[in-house]
Amino acid sequence: MRTLPPSAAPKALTTALLALFLTAACGQPEDPTATASTGPAEPAASEPGVASAPAGQPGAGDPKDNTYLSRIDTSTLTARLDCLRKVRGVLLIGHRGGPTRDYPENAIETLERTFKAGTHAGEIDIAQTKDGKLVLMHDDELDRTSTGTGLVSDHTWAEISKLKLETYSKPTNFHPPLLSDALAWAVKNGAILELDKKKSAPWQPIIAEVRAAKAENNVFLITYSDDQAAEVHKLAPDLVITASVDSPGQLDHLLSLGVNAQHLIAWTGTDAPDPALWNALAARNIESAFGTLGPRNSSLDGKYWEDQDGSEYDKLVSDGLPILVTDLTDKVSRQLSAAISKSAACGF
Prior knowledge:
Layout: H1 9-26, H2 67-70, H3 77-87, E1 91-94, H4 108-116, E2 121-128, E3 134-136, H5 157-160, H6 179-189, E4 192-197, H7 203-212, E5 219-222, H8 226-235, E6 240-244, H9 248-256, E7 264-267, H10 275-282, E8 287-291, H11 300-304, H12 311-318, E9 323-326, H13 329-335, H14 337-343
Parallel strand pairs: 1-2, 1-9, 2-4, 4-5, 5-6, 6-7, 7-8, 8-9
Antiparallel strand pairs: 2-3
């Protein structure tokens, strides 16, 4: 646990006791989304060097020298990702949009709440209805996250659109949205959506929806194998994809299949941070992504906040991680507010 200065210790103790009291009073099972506050993230204080260039580049370390920032290219998503890596900022992504007890996963209202609270990217899941509509839904079945029952693929959009979404603890007044509506929201707000295709949804209509919304600079496409990465890259060579990379050798294999490194984010898993890999990939101009998300009792999100001290997230960024996926968007966005403020210079 990080050692707190004497002036901060009483405040930290009060916060910890209050959290224990609320947990006992509610009598609810531990739920990662329950610990995410719904208040807006506090703005980062102005710091020398924030959103400036890395050491050795013009403008580095001198807040009065903005020559580097004036040359930053934010015209395309790939340029913005290059910028993110160079300024040592971080892009925080809310898993399933950043749900809480009041806001369900895969809802535009949840994406909006998460965005306003300081996390400007959301991972969403895409399924296809019986009549070919692309809808945001994680599971093959409707039962867990909505008032519906049965397979998504056995229901029409007219039927699914009338359902209400549910959180872990209660039903809400929010309805399942179409992918097209989520993309329109992202373009309007300058947000990033990481698209996770479920088995009921083919790639071609998803890519067509991205084109129709002019959201090419607002999406990452998640792939799960080297072959799938190559397939998606052939279908949409201008779109950014994520693909699993556990070594420089696997990166070489992806490139040999025709994947364009400029449009690739290396997904490095959820098990253990690998700064050596992140920095090796950065040396080849490739951004790495890592996830602290996962089952509530075993994820790094849960582990890092066990002592109410999120300094582990700061270490991830200082070790060279530019993209982080989390289940606890509000707490992590406040913890990483300084690094997030750097990413604003890159258009994130």
